[in-house]
Amino acid sequence: MPKAPLKPKKAASPATHKVRHKAKSESTKTESKTGEITSRLRIRVRAYESKILDLSVKQIIDTALRYDAEVLGPIPLPTEIKKYTVNRAAFVYKNAREQFEMRIHKRLIDIVNPTPKIIESLTNLSLPSGVNIDVKLV
Q: Is-contact 31 24, C-beta < 8 A?
């Protein structure tokens, strides 16, 4: 059976290269519908207990909404599970083991165009112990 002849690839014209390059550079910036560059306050919340985590996330969102901020989230991130296997006996009985695990629940909250008032109110927020917060300005 004869094979179909291979078609040579068309070389892209220089004009299309410029358009592609321009589109890539524009897509990296975060722009709103009005055309201004926006900033985001990315809050990553971690805790061992999911109930405490949800309460603190609700408290963060309520604080941000009090100052009319645009809030994206909470977005649940994958739960990190650390498993540990330990021998029950010190010397013999290798087959007798116990397994323990630690679950770290995570949530992500984005606040679009945060004002200084919002940032100040979030820093003064008192959250329960066991909740870890990472804040980045993206």
A: no
